[in-house]
Amino acid sequence: MLGRRGTPHNGLMRRYLLLICLFVGSSGSTLSLPAQTQLITGNYFPADLEFVELKSVDSQRELGESASLAELPEGALFTEAGFRHYARRSYRLNPSGLLTLETVTLNDSKAAYSLLSLLRNGVVTKGPPGDFAEGSDQNLMFCQSNVLVRIRSEAPGDLARRVARSVGNRIARREHEPSLIANLPKLGLDPVSLRYCLGPLAFARYAQPVAGKSIEFRDELEIAQARYSLENQTGILSLVGFPTVQLADEYFESLFGLMGSSSQAQLYFKKSGPMLAILEGNFAPRTADRLLGSIEFSYSVKWIYDARNRASAGMWGVSTGLMGTVVRSLALTGLLAGLSLLAGGLFATLRLLLRGYAPNNLLDRRSRTELIRLRFDE
């Protein structure tokens, strides 16, 4: 009987052992294969074996100090924009050729967009890849958040764009275009001519003087410049963003004296908040008014709670979380007021009861209440 009872138990044990061996064997075979994924690091480069066309790494380099950028053609521009980190990696392609990937990490998204507008060869369009991009399948450049990415590929097809999407997924963060660019009029704009400068070096290389007057760059000063054509009239619009409204007023007063000083070109000005627009060219007053009329500065105030919970629902323009905080505060205030009234009523009732049942109690003795009696009966 013992042997018969042990038979099913032994069979069950053999099944468990067989399942364990199969699991270990399958795990061992899986571990023996090359890894297909890897943890995302700060360099934003594609993972190993992510693209079969990338055969091996030919060379790579990283720079972490502004002084080491001197050997790069655009090193001075990187430094002026706010450089943090530079990395470059070249891949050997299958069957032949090279793909070079460069990433430049900057202080903010404005710097990345500025370098894209200065170094591009064509029209900047909205991504993907990235927030904004420019280029072809063999020479592609885009910016996403505070990172500028350049890819040069000798492979036919869309390999560069697929690599760009992979890099963008690793950056993850996204930003909108700078507010100064968003305020540029869209009517008559030549997108190829758009430049966005954040410093004197970028302005001297890629932009034209504003109304024949040099601009003293200060902290947070930014200039967007583009060519406009409307009704057979052409010219250049320079939109200058100042750190404060006072600086915009000061510069506006100094430029206003240039009106009519040039016989070859007309000058039109418009100031809106800390922004100053200067339109130069052969525009008629009515055409200039159409272009400058759309430039309006508006202050944007956001609750800190909304910045952390962008997906939270709202009512009447106020987030539900913020309204809940206000309601809870009012409810707590009402509760404390009610408790205070209740405590006062209970104490007054206690005094009345003590006077009736214990006239000579400690709280109602004449020696304690002499100073507060009105003495109407005397």
Mean pLDDT: 79
CA-atom Rg in angstroms:
36 Å
CATH topology descriptor of the domain at 54-171:
Protein Transport Mog1p, Chain A
Order of helices and strands: HEHEEHEEEEHHEHEEHEEHHEEHH
Low-confidence region ranges? 1-8, 24-41
Order of strands across the widest beta sheet? 1-2-3-7-6-5-4
Distance between the termini: 113 Å
CATH classification, class level of the domain at 54-171: Alpha Beta
Major sheet size, sense and barrel closure: 7 strands, antiparallel
Q: Which architecture of the domain at 54-171 per CATH?
A: 3-Layer(aba) Sandwich
- Proportion of beta-strand residues: 15-25%
What does the overall shape look like? flat
- Tell me the helix content: 25-40%
What is the number of strand segments? 14
The total of helices stands at: 11
Structure, described:
This protein has eleven helices and 14 strands. The chain has helices spanning 2-32, 75-81, 109-119, 159-171, 179-182, 200-206, 245-256, 285-292, 304-308, 320-357, 366-369; strands at residues 54-63, 83-93, 98-106, 125-126, 132-135, 139-144, 147-153, 195-197, 222-230, 233-241, 266-272, 275-281, 314-315, 318-319. The longest helix is centred in the C-terminal third of the chain and has 38 residues, at 320-357. It is flat and about 105 Å long.
